[in-house]
Amino acid sequence: MMYDSSMQDLPVLPILAQAPILMSIAKPILFLALLVPFMRYTARFEPDARRFTLPVAKINTIFISVAIVSLAAVVLIPIFWIGFPVAAMLMVGTMYGYWKFRDERVPEAERFELGGDKFARKMEARRKASSESAATVLFTNAKGARQPVPQKDDPTLGVYVALEQLLVGPIESRATRVDLVSSAQGVGVSMLVDGIRTKRDALPPDTGNASIDMIKKFAGLDPADRRRRQVGSCLMDGPAGRTELTVTTHGSSSGQVVRVDFARASRFGGAIETLGLAPGQLEALRVFEKVEKRKGVILVSAPPGQGLTNLGYTLIQRHDAYTSNVKTLEREPQFRVEGVDHKMFEPEPGVEEFGAMLTKIIRRDPDVVLCGDISEAGSAKAATLLGLESPLVYVLIPAESMAATIAIWMQAVGDPKLATRGLVGVVHQRLIRKLCPNCKSGFTPAPEQAKKLGIAAGKEVQLFRPSGKVQVKNRIEDCPVCQGTSYFGQSGIYEVMSLDDEARRLLMENDFRTAYARAVREQKMLQLQESALLKVRSGETSLDEVQRVFAPKQSSSAKPAVATASTPTKK
User: Fold this and answer.
1) Which of 73, 178, 445, 509 is 20 to 30 A from 46 in CA distance terms?
2) Dmax over Cα atoms in the chain, in whole Å?
3) Chosen domain end from 53, 88, 109
4) DSSP 540
5) How many beta carbons lie within 10 A of that of residue 520, not counting itself?
6) Start-end of H helices in 139-218
7) Residues 546 and 529 sit within 8 Å (Cβ to Cβ)
8) Could you give the angle at which helices 157-172 and 205-218 cross, rounded to 10 degrees?
9) Which residue, 162, 337, 143, 172, is CA-closest to 262?
């Protein structure tokens, strides 16, 4: 290779001196450490600017231009430690400028913040989110505010967890309500599933009473008031989704009693066809929908806790509230029927009595009235006087039988002639559990069972019995639908008696048995047990359930005359 003498003029030493600067790894990394966060945060500014209708194109142009100028400053300024700070000031200054420009044009609540307050709020929000993610349920009070979940070091955390356990288990078991009864020994807990009460583990006095105070607070009630009756509500979000809780409390010298209903409103408002009435019973009630028959008093009864209020709402719902004037007077409306004028009676010193308020309703020319209570003196008399004119009056009476219903009505009115004069019908209901459709077991009834059910001799009919079990591969397990209870939901069984002049005469003479037998004979009125056995024949319930429903009450205070009067021997 020949040597070129021209190469001796090249500035070899200056190039070698600059080589370490051109090959430095640290300086490009430092610049990227500045550029990447800048680009990352400026990318977030674009949707923020669009949200508040700021000049997005102009802002993006400024950000890109600043990034290019900053890169040029680092590359073109010979001394890196001068160019790098210049680039940093350009980028930080641009973000600060956007902050000020933006905050002058957005609402105060949307402005950027710096400082310890914002950091503290962020940390508190993180702690709250962490505690909520660890909680099984979250509560929202009656005003719509989410209730905070206690932190790990909060002494109320144990109470919150106990309250979760009180509510989540019953909801997952399809309970409609939970009852808490406090005493010196602790807080007793029970739940109601398909009308059957089941006890749960009791809570110690301290934890149990603190749990009661907590649910009262969530429902907007006064935890310190442990005697007066209070009603409130709140929402609970848990494994089963969102559930509305209706909390009713009252107290006595021995302690507090708390009832928590789950999604109470969802149990009201159904069509009359869903109640379980037989076709003939439906026809007997539909007579009163006619304008010319919209007069008199219909007694509506059911044992306590057997769906009396829902039955009353369903009956008035049959009347078109937009073409007729329908009103109610109740101590505590539990549901609002669309178009119906619900009136709540709140007794206070100096306020008129229930009966007087009921009488005042007549001045508003109602077509249908629901009277929710006749326990106060004068209320029943006001209701029967109301029914003598134009409106049809439904009167709700908690009672164990149709005989007891009429006895209570006669005693409340105080005058047999007046009590029966406007009486046009009596409806009595009981609830019976429905067999679980997933696990019920079919069988052919024995001849004596078939005869009792009215099945013709020799006719093959399949009935069903409770099981509660299903086969999964080679294992027998509890039914996942009814959770091993064998039943799922409830239906009504009914007696519907229409009254004519002869029936009213018999009742006025205190001869219920003859009036009842006459209705069975001449009106083909279904008796309560017959209504239940029809549901056995249709496969809706079981003979075991019918026997449970009609088993004699184990109570020394029960009146034998009332227990037998509802099912007299046919004549």
Assistant:
1) 73
2) 145
3) 109
4) S
5) 19
6) 157-172, 205-218
7) yes
8) 80
9) 172
Token pair in block for residue 480: 């996942």
Q: Which two tokens stand for residue 60?
A: 């993006």
Phi, psi of 310 (to 5 degrees): -60, -40
State which amino acid sits at residue 343.
K
Token pair belonging to 17: 């001196």
The distance from CA 533 to its chain's CA centroid, rounded to whole angstroms, is: 33
* Per-residue pLDDT tens over the stretch 75-123: 888 787 787 888 888 888 888 888 788 777 777 666 666 544 544 454 4
List pLDDT tens digits, range 469-510.
998 888 999 999 999 999 999 999 999 999 999 999 999 999
Give the C-alpha separation, 409 to 398, whole Å. 11
**Angle in degrees, CA 535, 539, 544, rounded to 5:** 75
Q: Which residues make Cβ contacts (< 8 Å) with residue 484, sequence separation at least 6?
A: 468, 469, 478
Q: Please, how many CA atoms are within 13 Å of residue 379, restricted to the half-sphere of its CB?
A: 21
Are 299 and 233 part of one and the same domain?
A: no
For 415-431, b/e burial (b = at least 16 CB within 10 A) is eeebbbbbbbbbbbbbb
Question: In terms of domains, do 185 and 76 share one?
Answer: no
- Cα–Cα nearest to 209, from 187, 231, 232: 187
Rounded to whole angstroms, how far apart are CA atoms 342 and 332? 10
Do 289 and 399 sit in the same domain of this protein? Answer: yes
Give the list of residues 6+ apart from residue 156 with CB closer than 8 angstroms, or none: 150, 210, 214
132 located within any domain: no
- Residue 473 DSSP symbol: T
Tell me: do 206 and 277 sit in the same domain: no
